[in-house]
Amino acid sequence: SAADYLLGVADLSGELMRLCINYLGGGNREQCFIIHDFLRSMLSSFEALPYGEIKELNRKINVMKQSLTKVENACYAVAIRGAEVPSHKLASLVKSSAIADPIPDED
């Protein structure tokens, strides 16, 4: 059904967040910013949907917000600390902060 499809697409946000962190670990910073922009657009589109008509959509949107926050934090670390810290250490720093992040994944 259309509702099942939307809920499945919403789950993509968590996978994209993990992909972003893995890209940073491999030194591919540009992809992290592309993922950030896509997640922001995706969240904006989902927030325009009628929450009440699809059970579980509100929870999925909250998880999407959490994933976007993690990606934003990673992008922030890259943008601010990228010039100060060598790439291999920055990737390690971002990965460890994403693992220790107090925002739990709910998917």
UniProtKB/TrEMBL annotation:
One of its GO terms (molecular function) is sequence-specific DNA binding. The lineage of its organism: Eukaryota, Ichthyosporea, Ichthyophonida, Sphaeroforma. It holds the Pfam family Translin. Gene3D superfamilies: Translin, domain 2. SUPFAM superfamilies: Translin. InterPro entries: Translin_C (IPR016069), Translin_fam (IPR002848), Translin_sf (IPR036081). This is Translin.
